[in-house]
Write a structure and sequence with these properties.
By secondary structure, the chain is of the alpha/beta class. Helices cover 39% and strands 20% of the residues. The chain has 8 helices and 7 strands. It has helices at residues 20-36, 41-51, 70-81, 97-100, 136-149, 163-175, 180-191, 196-205, and strands at residues 58-64, 85-92, 105-108, 121-127, 150-159, 212-216, 220-226. Helix 6 packs antiparallel against helix 7. The termini are far apart. The protein binds S-adenosylmethionine (SAM). S-adenosylmethionine binds at residues 14, 30, 34, 39, 65-67, 70-71, 92-94, 110-112, 127-129, 132.
Length: 240
């Protein structure tokens, strides 16, 4: 069946020889779509209960495959309105991301081999990034790496591979006069997306069997994992 398996065709987004101007145009188009689909909403909805009220006040957050850093920026502004201080680190593989990142720090790197020590961030998130990975093995590695560098919470979100979402995205992309490459990639990204059973199986394989996986309003696949942080040794304490 059409949506029973993930598409393997690569997105133009990931082509290594894209210019800075093309990448900038794609992030701009993505921002229009993201605004329409309230891309920050699942993170605003689920992060506070996953973290617990006390731990929301000061948060270090890593956004994987952050693109131009729009999501981190939106979350930081939203958190500030609640009196919380959220420090954002963005990570992306695109050579143009450092130049295009709007706010916060951008680290160049791959989600498959994160250049951070274990438990470096309170929260690790990713939005619409996982479908860029080509195999279940890579997705499992990405889940493990996200979990390794998180101290408290991992929250991942991506496209739900469904005919209904494909139809909605088709209509929005055609009505909105988006560039052809972006339209093609947008539709392909639904076909490269996931259903919740995919993520359940991959999470189990990655050793994240405690993680919860679900679909959010039929449009997104979500994964949440909570960790209990290890107590930090007081400064100057010698290891036992
Ligand atoms: C569709 S964009 C999503 C950007 C942003 N998360 C958002 O929601 O607007 C996917 C991003 O993932 C990045 N990406 C793809 N594969 C990656 C990898 N292996 N490691 C890090 N970033 C990657 C791309 O460069 C791109 O910026």
């Amino acid at each position: 069946m059409f949506f029973s398996r993930r598409a393997t065709q690569a997105e133009y987004f990931d082509s290594p020889d894209r210019s800075l101007a093309e990448t900038a145009e794609s992030y701009k188009s993505l921002e229009r779509i993201n605004r329409l689909f309230h891309f920050a909403e699942p993170f605003q909805r689920f992060l506070p209960p996953l973290l617990g009220a006390e731990n929301c006040r000061a948060v270090t957050l890593l956004d994987l495959g952050a693109g131009d850093g729009s999501l981190g920026q939106a979350l930081q502004v939203w958190a500030a309105k609640k009196g919380w201080s959220w420090e954002i680190t963005n990570l992306d593989l695109s050579p143009h991301a450092p130049e295009l990142c709007k706010t916060g720090k951008l680290v160049s790197g791959s989600v498959l081999d994160l250049p951070f020590a274990d438990e470096s961030f309170d929260v690790v998130i990713a939005n619409q990034m996982t479908h860029h990975l080509s195999s279940d093995e890579e997705v499992a590695k990405h889940f493990r790496e996200a979990h390794r560098v998180a101290r408290r919470v991992v929250l991942l979100s991506d496209m739900h591979r469904s005919a209904i979402l494909y139809g909605i995205i088709w209509a929005v992309l055609h009505a909105g006069n988006f560039p052809k490459h972006f339209r093609d990639d947008g539709l392909l990204s639904v076909k490269r997306g996931f259903c919740s059973e995919d993520w359940r199986q991959i999470a189990d394989r990655a050793g994240l069997s405690e993680a919860k996986v679900w679909t959010h309003f039929g449009a997104r696949v979500m994964l949440a994992a909570q960790k209990i942080p290890k107590p930090q040794a007081p400064p100057g304490a010698s290891p036992i």
